[in-house]
Amino acid sequence: MVRPEWRAATSYIDGLAVPGTASEQVLDPATGGRIGTVQLGDAAMVDDAVVAAGAAFPSWRDLGPSERGRMILDATDVVEADVGELAATVGLEVGKVRREAFGDVAGALALLRGFVGLVEELSNGEDRTGQPGTGQATAVRIRHVPVGPVGVIGPWNTPVFLTFNGIAPALASGCTVVVKPPVEAPLALTAVLRALAERLPAGVLNIVQGRGSVVGQRIAEHPGIRAVMFTGSTATGRSIAAAGAATIKKVALELGGNDPAIVLADAAITPELIAELVAGAFSMSGQICFNIKRVYVHISRRDELVDGLRAALSRVVVGDPLDPASQMGPLTTRDGYENALRLLRSARDAGARVEELGVRSPSAQWEAGNYVRPTLVTDVPADHELVLDEQFAPILPVIAFDDEDAAVAEANRTEFGLASSVWSADLAHAERIARRIEAGNTFVNAHRLGASVPLVPFGGVKQSGVGRTHGIHSLHHCTEEHAIVAFDDARAQLPGLDPWLETDEEVAR
Predict the structure, then answer these.
(1) What residue spans of 382-479 are helical by DSSP H?
(2) Does domain 259-444 have CATH number 3.40.640.10?
(3) Residues paired with residue 336 on neighbouring β-strands, in sequence order
(4) Contacts of 76 (CB under 8 A, 6+ apart)
């Protein structure tokens, strides 16, 4: 059950709860029932939050990494006690099974702790020295200084972890934050944010609930926001990029993906490989930006791979996300559910073989919930919408190839380029293929949550985003380099200065 105090997600600005101008229901995707409300804010509330963040910024920045880190860690420890209940809340509002929901919340707390430690390394700066009388600077100090108030706009599919993927580096580096939770899944995230904000100085962490077209747009265009971190759809990312351009702010966009997996002829089709592909494609009911969205397999291995996937997917238990036996829950939104059904109808009409698999658990309310069983699609045209667009559902098209160059060309055919993978027993061969794939990340013999190493830059190319996050790369987005260059004697160090120092008499001669 959701705690009563978590059932109403409100805004929180400058240390105070702020009621919304309207409210909207938060629905359980497994039953369609109401589990809470979100009080929607407006552009004026964003303005108030930015003013508060701007006023709090100098003192938060000047605390230094050690004192900021202590405050963040103390607040994180308080949230830790509620991880189990928060995870249950995520499960209800998003439809995640227990292990996925727990990872969403616990992972966010790990991000806070990790960035507190990492920022110490960044804050030390870099010193370079030259030699007096050589024309070089005698002292150079390169500092990384926080940019100022940062706007973070979170997604509904992994609301706590992915929102804190922006909040954690911003707070740790000395920035203040204005965050917009997703209206589809605001409850657990808002509870975590409130617990932290109440234990930090007023104005350091501000929450504005609301629609992206209103609140998100105002955050992106506001001149007082110096950087934006967004995870979500490509269409929304374009709007944020355009809004941010007017004030030349830093923008990091992690957008949609249509991630290809290429299984080469020399890949060993083992139970472990099948399990990896299933986890990579069907985790969180297919609603992860860098899930596997399409598989290209060498024609000599097609039947073996399809048979393995069919057998594995036939055992997946689909049911109520709070049921410990469930391995996959419902889709989060009704729109996503309707789109998945539309894609499956279209694929059938195009002559594809569509196999809806999995075990229907009696714990699920099948008529009321947004349930789509894990589905394998074969013999689908290579130019079908299911292949070329991001389905964001538990549907996996498998396409055979007989030429590696053609497989790479098909992998690169879309305007998406978030992640990708190559599967082979020959790592050198796999890397040669990987180098030709247009994506921000290419994995070899893996492609799922956990494959993206935290300290490795993560982000997309083409329509899948701009900028990189994770580790030090997130901290760089929240800071600016400031170089202090010192000379011990201007005339001795700078060539070409003499004409500016000539006396009138010297000029006359």
Answers:
(1) 385-388, 404-411, 427-434, 471-477
(2) no
(3) none
(4) 109, 112, 113, 196
Give the E-state strand segments of 256-379 in sequence order: 259-263, 292-298, 317-318, 353-356, 359-360, 375-378
390 is catalytic: no
Cα–Cα distances in Å, from 323 out to 62, 93, 97, 319, 484? 48, 15, 8, 7, 58
CA distance linking residue 190 with residue 198, whole number of Å: 12
User: Which residues partner with 134 through β-bridges?
Assistant: none
505 is catalytic: no
* Residue among 201, 251, 200 at smallest CA distance from 225: 251
- Print pLDDT tens along the chain (509 aa): 789 999 999 999 999 999 999 999 999 999 999 999 999 999 999 999 999 999 999 999 999 999 999 999 999 999 999 999 999 999 999 999 999 999 999 999 999 999 999 987 776 666 665 555 555 666 778 889 999 999 999 999 999 999 999 999 999 999 999 999 999 999 999 999 999 999 999 999 999 999 999 999 999 999 999 999 999 999 999 999 999 999 999 999 999 999 999 999 999 999 999 999 999 999 999 999 999 999 999 999 999 999 999 999 999 999 999 999 999 999 999 999 999 999 999 999 999 999 999 999 999 999 999 999 999 999 999 999 999 999 999 999 999 999 999 999 999 999 999 999 999 999 999 999 999 999 999 999 999 988 888 778 999 999 999 999 999 999 999 999 998 888 766 545 556 656 655 555 554 55
Residue with tokens 């396409």: 399
CATH architecture for segment(s) 4-255+462-484: 3-Layer(aba) Sandwich (3.40)
93, 254, 404, 438: which is the annotated catalytic residue? Answer: 254
Instruction: In the chain, list all ranges with CATH 3.40.309.10.
Output: 259-444
Which among 289, 390, 410, 438 is annotated as catalytic?
A: 289
Written as six digits, the tokens of 88 are 């249950």
